[in-house]
Amino acid sequence: MAFATLTERTPAHRVYRYGGWLIGAAILIYIPWFAHEPARISQYSQVVCYAVAILALNLVIGFSGQISLGHSAFVGIGAYTTIILVADHDWSYVATIPVAFAIAFVVGVVVGLPALRIRGLYLAVVTLAVATVFPTLVLKYESFTGGPNGKQATTRWVPPDWTPFSQRNRFGPLAYKYFVLLLIAIICFVLVRNLLKSRVGRAVIAQRDNQTSAATSGVNLAIYRSLNFGFSAAIAGVAGSMLMIETPQATDTKFGVNLAIFLVVALVLGGVATIGGAIPGALAFVFVPYYTREWADDYIGFLQGRPGAGAISDVLYGALLLVFVFILPGGVMDGIKRLKARIVKVIPNPSWLPKDHAPVIISDTAESPFPELVTEPAAEDEVEDLTSTTTRGSNE
Description:
Elements: E1 4-7, H1 11-30, H2 38-61, H3 71-89, H4 96-112, H5 121-140, H6 142-145, E2 151-152, H7 172-197, H8 199-209, H9 211-216, H10 221-246, E3 249-250, H11 257-270, H12 278-299, H13 312-327, H14 332-343, E4 344-347, H15 380-395
Parallel strand pairs: 1-4
Antiparallel strand pairs: 2-3
Helix pairs in contact: 2-7, 2-10, 2-11, 2-12, 3-4, 3-5, 3-10, 4-10, 7-8, 7-10, 8-10, 11-12, 12-13
């Protein structure tokens, strides 16, 4: 039984609804000030970047019902677009984001064309091939991408003088970089939310639920699938550009198959078909391997220096993921939703009902509260005339 009961569209419900958003915004703003070391702020920035990448993958898997294992390639395309333009053509980091968005969108539409004919595991194999081929292409065009040594930019991310972040403070540039990445991530989340609330988003979700019903309702399955896959790839490209803002160095191993698989795992952990699920998924993606590695180094020291010692943290990571899936099969967001339902119960209050929509029993002598809906009873002679007219018409 819930501890509190709220009615929709009431002031208490609005406070309950928007209070959580305000608390979350306050946490995101004050997180850098609680960091005791610069490396922690870098980890927070990585969480923001990977949250956008998971959000992009969720557009395909969660809201479109398709399986994609190749989004690491789209993240890599955005990353290499940014690093090449910055290192070789002296572009600013922010100016490269629209270019990365456009290039990743075009590549995503081209890769999404097989989705018009195949589905399920077959599409997963095709996208997995894209994730496998991308590092090979990076190594092949070494003069353009830097090859196995990678490509990095020497341009420093310096906060402007009008900002409250000092260049002399070791926390200043990192905190400024975090807030820039956070602003870009908020724009991406708002774009995805507005897309899903629009006619296009409803069409994408409809074809996920039932393709036959969507097609009979006028949804062009081919166009919406291709555009949704392309938009998802474009958001992933923006995530790649954000990663280059955080750490301006791109290598072929950074955007391989491992990243593609771990993005899917993080999506499942956070919650499929939920916009907010990208945030806990990114937190698990960044911090769970970090803490399992630290725990393995501190408490399993007898494995240090032996073959396979570095893999113990990955084993712990996998075990934790299995336990987590059994505890919360619907992801973190599903668990939060169930917990909120146990604490606060929200009673629906549709907008088409009047404010006071309690059932009212009106007697024959009572005055109706809605006189415009009450009609006078017909007189007896009018009833007789109507009956005779009806009878005559049926005889004819």
